[in-house]
Task: inverse folding
């Protein structure tokens, strides 16, 4: 896997236009301003931008150069002591996945997790409050995660890397006493819910609306479950008749399961984080026999595509 580090954010060095004070610096430089700063011709600036060698954005056909990233690009090219990239928090946010949770712990990577849903994780990634997030959001075109990430972070150096394929469906009581066979059967039952930031809740609501059912009108506990395990526990303790969850979790709790969807669970991470030691430790563990055995023991999981890059952001 060959990625070029590009477009990473570094601490600025205070480059300033002659006609501006320190507190009035423009966020972006024009082609002419960058050429003057570098003491090169404007044509050379266009060549650097076309080759992806300098951080830039294109707005209504015009090239603009983010001041802070240009300053970092200049500083990183100097000889002598290097300039470190802005550190990312050692945190994996986003959607809960039981195999991922286990692997983070067993890998010795030291990466802590905060699972509060795919959309929450993506928002934390945008704010640089996390190094990575787990996601399983079905895109408008029917794929998974990529278009959602592209829309949220179109010019950022982020990578969408496949973690696993998972089987999702309706978790029911042992023996399926209500005879649940399809998504339309939820209308007459008490349904467990996930938080609104969860990819599974978003997909569940799309599916039930497709059956002409209003998700808000469904009976069941009002307080949402925060993880895949928690939503299954609500069925296990009898507080709900049905939950939209994973085959592996249903099997673990000896509950019934009606399969509906094969989904792709991805890790979305800053390209910078991929090369950091904690994530590299996690990747080494994911290549181990222990990881493969664990995945094979979890019904509904397939990890043959682990590590496939589905999106590699431009970082310009």
Result:
């Amino acid at each position: 896997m060959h990625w070029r580090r590009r477009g990473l954010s570094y601490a600025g060095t205070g480059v300033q236009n002659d006609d501006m004070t320190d507190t009035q610096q423009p966020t972006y430089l024009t082609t002419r301003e960058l050429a003057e700063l570098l003491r090169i011709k404007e044509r050379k600036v266009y060549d650097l931008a076309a080759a992806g060698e300098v951080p830039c954005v294109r707005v209504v056909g015009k090239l603009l150069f983010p001041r802070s990233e240009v300053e970092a690009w200049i500083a990183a090219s100097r000889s002598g002591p290097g300039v470190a990239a802005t550190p990312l928090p050692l945190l994996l946010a986003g959607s809960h996945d039981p195999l991922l949770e286990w692997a983070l712990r067993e890998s010795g990577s030291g990466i802590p997790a905060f699972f509060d849903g795919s959309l929450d994780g993506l928002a934390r990634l945008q704010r640089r409050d996390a190094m990575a997030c787990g996601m399983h959001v079905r895109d408008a075109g029917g794929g998974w995660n990529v278009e959602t990430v592209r829309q949220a972070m179109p010019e950022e150096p982020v990578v969408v890397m496949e973690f696993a394929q998972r089987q999702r469906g309706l978790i029911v009581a042992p023996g399926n006493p209500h005879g649940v066979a399809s998504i339309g059967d939820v209308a007459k039952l008490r349904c467990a819910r996930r938080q609104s930031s969860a990819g599974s809740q978003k997909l569940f609501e799309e599916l039930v609306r497709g059956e002409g059912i209003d998700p808000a009108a469904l009976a069941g506990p009002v307080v949402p479950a925060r993880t895949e395990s928690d939503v299954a526990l609500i069925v296990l303790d009898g507080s709900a008749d049905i939950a939209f969850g994973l085959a592996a979790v249903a099997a673990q709790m000896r509950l019934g399961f009606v399969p509906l969807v094969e989904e792709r669970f991805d890790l979305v991470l800053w390209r910078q984080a991929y090369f950091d030691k904690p994530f590299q430790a996690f990747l080494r563990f994911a290549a181990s026999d222990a990881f493969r055995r664990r995945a094979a023991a979890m019904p509904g999981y397939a990890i043959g595509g682990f590590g496939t890059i589905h999106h590699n952001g431009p970082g310009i």
In short: The longest helix spans residues 199-210.
